[in-house]
User: Which sequence fits this backbone?
């Protein structure tokens, strides 16, 4: 399956609706979520499940951070 930019429109709608289009707000929420996962009781998830979920969230956070930094760099040059 190959994605098109238009396939990501629900994600963009979420960003606008829930974070008012502010990527930094989304990044901060992802950081808090990752932090809070460390306080979920240990027997709720296996170590591997916890590791996999944290990995996915960290990758998402890294991708959003790259977009944020790129857009900030573009805004400074304008």
Assistant:
């Amino acid at each position: 399956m190959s994605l098109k930019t238009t396939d990501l429109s629900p994600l963009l709608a979420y960003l606008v609706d829930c974070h008012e289009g502010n990527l930094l707000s989304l990044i901060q929420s992802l950081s808090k979520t990752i932090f809070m996962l460390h306080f979920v009781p240990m027997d709720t998830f296996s170590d591997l499940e916890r590791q996999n979920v944290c990995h996915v969230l960290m990758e998402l956070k890294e991708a959003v951070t790259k977009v944020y930094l790129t857009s900030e760099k573009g805004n400074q040059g304008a």
